[in-house]
Write a structure and sequence with these properties.
This is MerR family transcriptional regulator. Keywords: DNA-binding. The chain has twelve helices and three strands; from the N terminus they run E-H-H-E-E-H-H-H-H-H-H-H-H-H-H. The protein is an all-alpha fold and about 250 residues long. A hairpin with a 5-residue loop joins strand 2 and strand 3.
């Protein structure tokens, strides 16, 4: 039978020598034998036990609990626990990726953003915030309306062409405001026409839902509660006036 020193075991498993020695010290996984000089030697079965410990640790199970179940737990149960942990990690990473997309889109609009917007990337409150926004949506929109919005409304966390179109609309309005162009100017009217086209794509001809959405959008407080990007009031006012002019001219 082949035996491996503590150092070789640590290297083989990709853990520190200190970890292997600690598991031995707390009698979690002890080596099968020791040589005359006191060097600890691990068998293939010992290494398998260490691998089981490492898998269980990946499930966030405390060492004291691992110590209790190590010799009773089945490999199927270990895999199921590991699968659950991976699914939780995937959900957390998905939320973090969505928030990262949101921040990148915010930078496109604002150039600079506050550092507190980065804190959720540490994994704090992202799921709670999503659930809270879902609850707020239920209070404002019907179930059918939510389905339409969920399917068609571009979200700041999306990395899509549709989001880029809306970002460019806001940036174009910012340019008009900076250059002193009025909502009834040629550029203002082109922006309004583009918004009408995008609205048609988003709301699929449901004028009532479109109006309801824009009413919500004009309320800074409600927009924030629903997780919509906080568009400045002067931008919304410019767009509203431009769209009125388009309606009158048509």
């Amino acid at each position: 039978m082949n035996y491996f020193s503590s150092g070789k075991v640590a290297k083989k498993l990709g853990v520190s020598l200190r970890t292997v020695r600690y598991y031995d010290h707390i009698e979690l996984v002890e080596p099968t034998k020791k040589d005359d000089s006191g060097r600890r030697l691990y068998s293939a079965d010992d290494i398998l036990q260490l691998q089981k410990v490492m898998l269980l640790k990946e499930t966030a199970m405390p060492l004291k609990d691992i110590q209790k179940v190590l010799n009773q737990i089945t490999m199927e149960r270990i895999l199921l626990l590991h699968k659950e942990k991976l699914e939780e990690d995937l959900e957390r990473l998905s939320l973090s990726l969505d928030h990262t997309h949101s921040l990148l889109n915010m930078i496109k609009l604002e150039k600079e953003i506050q550092w507190e917007h980065f804190i959720p990337l540490l994994g704090q409150d992202l799921e709670e915030r999503r659930q809270q926004r879902a609850a707020e949506m239920e209070m404002v929109f019907s179930e059918e309306e939510q389905v339409v919005l969920q399917k068609n409304l571009p979200k700041l966390e999306d990395d899509t062409v549709e989001v880029a179109k809306w970002i460019n609309i806001i940036k174009r309005i910012d340019l008009c405001l900076a250059e002193g162009k009025r909502p009834d100017s040629e550029e203002g009217q082109l922006i309004a026409e583009d918004v009408l086209i995008l609205s048609e794509e988003t709301f699929k001809g449901d004028a009532e839902l479109a109006e309801k959405f824009w009413d919500v959008r004009k309320s800074e407080g409600v927009s924030s509660e629903l997780g919509f990007y906080p568009v400045r009031q002067e931008v919304l006012e410019f767009l509203e006036e431009a769209m009125k002019e388009v309606s009158v001219s048509s």
